[in-house]
Amino acid sequence: MRSKVHFVRVKLNEDLDAIRDKTRWLLESIKLKKFIRVNDLVAIKISFGEEGNKGYIPPNFVRFVIDEVKSCRGKPFLTDTNTLYKEKRQNTVDHLNLAYEHGFTQDVTGAPIIIADGLRSGEDIKVNINKKHFKSVKIARACADADSLIALSHVTGHMLSGFAAATKNIGMGLATRVGKLLQHSNIKPSVLTSKCTACKLCIVNCPVDAIEIKNKAACIKEDICIGCGDCLVVCRDDAIKISWSETSTFMQEKMAEHALGVMKNKEGRTVFLNYALKITKSCDCMAKDDPRIVPDIGILASTDPIAIDKASADLINETSNLDLFKKEYPNLDWSVQLTYGASIGLGNLEYDLVEME
Length: 357
Ligand code: SF4
Ligand code: SF4
What we know:
The protein is of the alpha/beta class. Helices cover 33% and strands 22% of the residues. The protein has helices at 16-29, 59-71, 92-101, 106-109, 141-145, 166-171, 177-183, 201-205, 230-234, 244-264, 305-320, 324-328, 336-343; strands at 3-9, 41-45, 75-80, 113-115, 124-128, 136-140, 148-154, 156-158, 162-164, 190-191, 211-214, 217-220, 240-241, 270-276, 279-280, 292-294, 298-302, 351-355. The strands form 6 sheets. An 8-stranded mixed sheet has the order 4-3-2-7-14-17-1-18, sandwiched between helices. Helix 7 packs antiparallel against helix 10 (244-264) and helix 10 crosses helix 13. The radius of gyration is 20 Å and the shape is globular. One iron/sulfur cluster (SF4) is lined by residues 191, 196-202, 218, 234-235, 237, 239-240. One iron/sulfur cluster is lined by residues 189, 206-208, 210-211, 220, 225-231.
């Protein structure tokens, strides 16, 4: 069976009234009312962006979705989970402060924020999935407890998975720190001592103090490393290496299995909106404001995370006239998350695109 993906062309700098009308068209086309019962607690999953990053979905765009949920008489709340790595979203207090700084206040969005995995990411629910990597996965509690889920995903590239949208937003983004850790557990970085300048940037950024300087070069203690990839991101001398293909494949498969766990108690209660706007090489977890790698495409809506991600990538690649994510990350196969996701029943690779006229 083919899935439906609804699509409107949008530019980030377009008139706000037009964006509100287009968002409304998308949610009417998808029949939002079918997914939200009166008084449902509706989790709106979003990334509030890392400090210094401006790629996140603008709070006033989020307001348009919140208003539609309220018109279905649902009770929406914005949600995300705490991060594995150091920066400003590692615990709920810092995370909320950053979200407010980025404009996600209740007067702007119309909804409160609940960080789904609790103060220090200890609040989860075990969901049995019985798949290749995991028999069960741990999902952030507030999301699992919510009656319905709407995932708002900014479509970007990603340094470990090559491509990030709905599957990553719920698979990685609704796992607790333990779940994130398990998804990264195949990432085993090592140091190319010939390139290392002993600048210590990786040491400062390693969340678990797994790096030390030995013989004038960084040295990673394998037994302590949690595979978060932060050292790889911050090293300016290209001195950290990992085995890309194997690492990325396993991580994407594990991410898809976590996404399946998120969806498990939400059958008929999950909607996805992908924002293919200000598409950047890195995701919004990076503490920097990347330039666009392709012109704005638009917003997509579907009930199928695989179909909406496939449609998003297809539209981007069509506009770029090449496989853009392969070009940006030649060592990775970004499509693993979709093919594997489809193989475990997360969604369909086949879809029909319904475009607003
Ligand atoms: S950031 Fe790179 S160059 Fe600096 S100490 Fe770490 S590995 Fe070496
Ligand atoms: S050594 Fe690198 S990958 Fe390992 S925990 Fe530290 S920053 Fe993360």
